[in-house]
Amino acid sequence: MNEQLSAYKIKQGRRIYDIYNIFNSFSFALVTGNTVTLYALFLKANTTVVGLLTAFMYLSFFAIPLGKLMVMRFSIMQTFGSTWLLRTASLLPLLAIPFLVSAGHDQYALYCLLLAVGLFNFFRGAGMIANNPVIRILAPGKDRSSYIVRLSLINNLAALLATVLLAWLLRRDPSVHSYNLASMIGILLGFIASVLLFRIPEPESAKPNRQKRKDRTTPRQGSTFLRHIRDAFKDANFRRFVLAFFIISLGIAMIRPFIIVYAKEVYSRRDSAATILSVYSLVGALSVGLLMHLIIDRIGAKPIFIIFSAISALSLIPAFFAPGLASAGILSTVFLILFTIISNVGFVGQDNSSQAYFFAMVPEEALMDLSMLYYFILAITGGAGSILGGTILDLLRVQGFSYLQSYQIFFLIVIAIIAIGIVFQRKLLNLGSYRVFETLAVLFSPRDMKALNLLHKLDRSETIETEEKILNELGEIASSVSCDQLLHYLESPRFTIRMNALRALYSMNTINAKVRDVVLKELEQGAFTTAPLAARILAKFNVQQAVTPLRAALDSDDYYLAGEAMVALARLNDSYSQPKIGTILSQAENPALILKGIRALELFNADNSPMFILDILRRDTVPPYIENEALLALASLMGIQNDFYYMFEKYRNEKQSPSILFIDILDEIFETKKTSDPVLKKTVIDFIQDYQYDEAFVRWLIGFGKNKLGIRSALLVAVALDIGLIHREAFRFFLSFWAISLFKKPELAER
Fold first, then answer.
1. How far apart are CA 163 and CA 283, in angstroms?
2. How far apart are the C-alpha atoms of 17 and 11, rounded to whole Å?
C-alpha cells in the first residue's frame, strides 16, 4: 500500500483523527488503566488481579491476526471502526456492577469487571492492526515521528481532563455510583469515537474493491508475514532492537500498573487522592510529549529511546530513600507527585521513541506485518510483566516483608531488568540520529532548545515574511541543531529565503557532511546570487573540497564571488592560488575586488604579499579607502597592526598632525626604555614632513637593522626610496611608524 493521499485529504484526515483521539482518549481514561485499577481495588481485588487486568491490555495484541484477516476483506478504516464499535459495546457489562454490589455479590461484580475488560481488550487488539497503517497514511513524510508525538500529546491531554473529572466524582462521592457514571460517559464517548473512524479518508489501495482484484500471483498473507519476519531477523540491528525492546518493555510493564497501587498501599492514599496522582502522571506525559514534539524529528529516535529508558529506571531510585516520608504529610504528597510525574515521563518517552525508531527502521512494504510482531512483543512483555509484577509483590508479602520493603525489593528488580535492556539499546544503529551525550547537551542548552522551538514554528509558517523572520532569528541563535532543517530552505524558489538560510548556516559553530555538499553545490551554481556567501561558509568551516571550485571562481565575471573566492582560498591556506590572486589584483579596477584581494594577501601572510600590495599603492590614483586597507594590511604583515591602527585612525579621522603624534610616541618610548635616539626623532620628523629626506631615513633603517633585516623589512627599506610611493604622506606615515616600532621592538626587523 504505497499510494498516498493528496495533501488536502491528509489534512482533512488528520483533523478527523485528532477529534477521534480526543473522544477516544477521554473515553479510554474513564474505562481502563488506573481507573480500572482503582475500581478493582474498590471491589477488594488483590495485586495479582490488578496485574491480570493490566495484562489484558497487552494480551489483546494477540488478537491482531484476527484484525489482519478483517483487513483482507474490508478496508483499513472499516476494520478499525468496526472493531472499535465492538470494543465499546463490550464495556456494557460494567453497567451491571452497581446492581451486583447492591445485592452483596462483590465477587461477581469483580468477575463482571474482568469480563468487560477482557472483551474490551480483545476487540481493541483486533483493531490495533490498523494503528500503524493509519499513521503511515496520515504522516507519509518526514514529520512522522513528530506526528506520533503529537497524537500522544492529544491523547494525554484528553486523558488528563478525563482523570480530573474522575477525581472530582470520587472526591464528591467515593462510591460505586461514581465509577458507574464514569463508565457511562466513557462508553458514550467511545461510540462517538468509533463512528468518526469511518470518516477518515484512505488510499484506493486500501479499499475492498482493490483487495478483491488482487492478482492470483500475489503471495498469501500468511506467507508474506513469515517472509517479512524472516527477512527482518536477518538484520542484526533489527534483532538487537527486538531484544532491547523486549527487555525494557518487560521491566516497564512490571512496574507501570503498580505506581498508583504503591501510593495506596504504602502511603494509604484514598481513591480520589490516587486519581489525582494519575492527573500528575498525565502532566508528566504531556511535558515529555511537548519536549519530544520539538526534538524527535531532528535529534533522532535512538538517543531519546535510551535516555527515557534510563529515566524510567532512575525514577524508581528515590523510593529507596523515602520511608521517613510516610508520616510526613505534605512531604509524602510532594514525593508521590514527583515520583509519579518523573516515572511516567520515562514510560511515555520510551513508548514514543521506541515506536519512532521502529518506523525509521522498518521498510514500508513490511510495516503491517512487522507491526504485528511489534505488538506481539508488547503483548508478551506487557502481559507477563503485569502478572509477574503482581505475583512478585504478593510473594514478597507472603515472605513477611512489609508493603514498603516489598516495593523496594520489587523496584530493585525492575531497575536491574531495564539496565540490562539499555546495554543492548546502546548497540543499536544511530540511523542518522545524534549520540546520547550530544542529545543531553541539546536538552540542557537553552540556545539549542530555542532553536528547536523556532524550527517547529518554521515548519508551520504560512507566509514568506514569517519564514524570513524565523531564519534571521535562527542565524542570531547560531545553534547547530538547525543545520539539516535549513537545507530545505536552500531549495526555496525565493532568493531572500535562500540567502537567509545561508546566513543562518554561516552563523553555526559546525556543519555536517550533508550541509557541506549542499553549500558546495551553491558555490558552483550560484554565481551572482548565493555563491559568494557559500564561499565564505566553506572557508569558515575549512572545507578543503572547496579549493578546486574556488580556484575556478577566481575567473568569474561575478566580482563579488571572485573576491570572496580570494579570501576563502587564503583562509584555506591554498598557497598555489596566491600568485594568481596577486596577478589578478595588478589588473583589477573594481574596488570591491581589490579590497577582497588585499584582505586575501594579508591572510596568506606570505613574504611576497607586501610586494603585491605595494603595486596597488603605486597606481596613479588610489581611492582613500583602498589606500587605507592596503596600509593596514601592510601593518598586519609587518606585525604592527594593533598599534598602527589606532595611530592611523587619529591621523585619518581626527586629522592630528603626524609630527606631533610621532613626537608623543617617541617621548613615551624614550621614557619607558630609559634611553633616547635624537637621530631617529629628527629623521622621522623630517621624513614625514618632506619625502626628500628619504636617504637619511633609509640610512637610519640600514644602520639600525644592520644584517638582521628579514625579507619583508628589506623590501620596505628598498621602497623607502621609491618616489612613486613615498610622495604619498599616508605611506610615509606608515614607514615612519614602522621605524619607530623597530626601535621599540628590534626583533620586528627580522620579518
1. 11
2. 10
Which residues contact residue 170 at a Cβ distance below 8 angstroms, ignoring those fewer than 6 apart? 38, 178, 179, 271, 272, 275
With cell 457514571, the residue in question is: 181
Q: How far is Cα 560 from Cα 514, in angstroms, rounded to an integer?
A: 25
Which candidate, 593, 591, 590, places its Cα nearest to that of 567? 593
CA dist., res. 701 & res. 21, Å (int): 86
pLDDT along the chain (751 residues), means of 10: 73 89 87 77 77 75 82 84 90 88 84 88 85 81 73 82 82 82 90 91 65 46 75 90 93 85 77 69 78 79 91 89 64 84 88 85 81 83 84 88 87 94 91 82 84 79 80 79 78 84 85 87 90 93 93 92 94 92 90 93 91 90 90 92 89 84 88 84 89 88 81 89 88 91 87 82
Task: Quickly count: other Cβ atoms within 10 Å of residue 654's Cβ.
Answer: 8
The interaxial angle of helices 446-459 and 271-299, nearest 10 deg, is 80
Please give the C-alpha separations between residue 728 and each of 199, 488, 689, 724, in angstroms, as whole numbers. Answer: 85, 53, 11, 8
Contacts of residue 398, defined as CB under 8 A and 6 or more positions apart, other chains included, come to: none
Question: How many angstroms separate the CA atoms of 174 and 168, rounded?
Answer: 10
CA distances from 164 to 66, 132, 157, 547 (A): 35, 30, 11, 64
Q: What is the pTM of this model?
A: 0.67
What separation in angstroms does the CA of 596 have from each of 182, 582, 607, 612, 641?
A: 75, 11, 19, 13, 18
* Of residues 197, 183, 204, 56, the one with CA closest to residue 131: 197
* Pairwise CA distance, residues 730 & 631, whole Å: 8
Q: Give the CA count within 13 Å in the CB-facing half-sphere of 599.
A: 16
Nearest-angstrom CA–CA distance, 47 and 651? 89
Q: Could you give the CA distance from residue 79 to residue 69 in angstroms, rounded to a whole number? A: 9
Q: Which long-range contacts (CB under 8 A, 24 or more apart) does 515-520 make?
A: 515/483, 515/484, 515/486, 515/487, 516/541, 516/543, 516/545, 518/487, 518/490, 519/543, 520/545, 520/546, 520/549
Cell numbers for 625: 579607502
The answer to whether 584 and 616 have CB atoms below 8 angstroms apart is no
